Every structure is written in structure tokens, then in C-alpha cells.
Amino acid sequence: MHCIRVHRARRAVHCAAALIALGAAGRTAAAQQPYPGYPTYPAYPPQQPIPPQPYPGYPVVPSMPGVPAIPGMPAHPPVLAAYRLPVIAIAQPTEGVVLPDDRPVAILRFAAAEALDPIDALTLQVLVDGEDRTSLFTLAQNEAWGRLSPADELLIPGQHEVRARICSTRGACSVVKATVTVVATTSLLQQLGAAGERARATQSPSRRTRVLGAVLQAMRVLIK
Fold first, then answer.
1. What is the bridge-based pairing of β-strands 158-168 and 173-183?
2. Cα dihedral across residues 217, 222, 223, 224: positive or negative
């Protein structure tokens, strides 16, 4: 019985040793074989470049036949006339009238030339010798008046250029220019006094003639 057991143990040892040797041999054989690698694919021939083609352009749209002209109507629409400019003028002082240096007052009048293009009174601008005097003027419906110089500033006697500008609501503008003569107040009073003396001198003979005619007429009545 003991011998049977010993024989079985030895046989198991020999089997195990044989299995270990077989596994080692298999691993050695596998290690010695080369790796097959990835499969290779066939190479494609190089592609030839496609030459650029010109753009064919947009398709041509066939033209539509023209509309026949209506008898009695013009072939082309009429051209509308341009808007007329507004009107502006210096009403006072008139030509030949002088202004005193202490009260140089001017009056401007303006009006629209088109019924659909009224005056924009806020665009009024008044320049005296290039200086803006618009703030000294008072606006009304169709006119404006004011001084050509501030109350505490006298204009130098002589000629002064007055320039006025006004526009319509559409933007059409008109400009007027005038030369105004200013004299000193003392000189103006002297001129008025001399003119009054000349007027009285010319009127005295006529008055005497009227008085003499009235006396003669009364005498004729009394004689009758």
C-alpha cells in the first residue's frame, strides 16, 4: 500500500515537471517567431490637378417688350421746375435815408415764394459789418425789426454793410445786402434845423400873399 502511494506521488511530480517544461518550450518558441505586423494596403496612383474653369457668368434675362406709347401723352415725363428761393428785403432805411447813431433801427421783410415751402423764421441771420446782430431783432409773421448795434454801443458815423439771410423749411436760402449811412445825432439835428429854417424862409412870402389876398377879398365884399 505504501509503495502504491509513493508511485502515485512520483508520477504526479513527473507530470507536473513535464507540463512546466512544455509551457516553457511553448513560450520560447512563441518569442522566437517574428510579429507579422499590420497588413499593407495597395498604393493609389497620384491624382492629377484639375485645371481652373472660367466662370460661365449669370444667365442672360430676356428683355421685356416696351410698353406702347399712349396717343396724346409725351414720351418722357415732364421735368419739374426747381423750387424758387424765398424773398427778403430791407424795408427801412430806404436808399438815401440816413440813421442817427443812437437809434440805428432797420426793418426787414420776407415772404415765401412757394406755397408748399414756407419760411422758417428761426433761420433769420443779420450781420452788420460782419458781426452777428440777430439777437437784437424781433420776429413777426413776415418781418423783423431791431437795432443795428446794442443800446450801449454807438455805430461810427459813416457807411455800414447790412447783410440779412433767411431760409425756407426745405432749405432754400436768400440773402440781401445794403449799405446804410449813419450820422451823429448832433449833426442830424443841425441838418434838420437848417432845413426847417429854409422851409420857413420859403413859406413866409406865400403866407403874406395869402393874407393880402384875404384882405382884398374882404374889401371887395364891403364895397359891394
1. antiparallel
2. positive
With 0-12 / 13-18 / 19 or more C-beta atoms within 10 angstroms meaning exposed / middle / buried, residue 169 is middle
Look up the CATH superfamily of 87-186.
Answer: Immunoglobulins (2.60.40.10)
Query: Within its chain, how far is the Cα of 127 from the centroid?
Result: 23
What is the rounded CA–CA span in Å between residue 8 and residue 16?
A: 12
Cβ pair 135, 149 in contact under 8 A: no
Q: Is the pLDDT of residue 83 over 60?
A: yes
Question: What sections of the chain are H helices per DSSP?
Answer: 2-32, 185-223
CB contact at 8 A, 133 and 216 = no
- Provide the residue type at 97 as one letter: V
Integer Cα distance of 15 and 42 in angstroms:
51
The pTM of the full predicted model, rounded to 2 decimals, is 0.50
Query: Residues, the chain, total?
Result: 224
Q: Count CB neighbours of 174 within 10 A.
A: 18
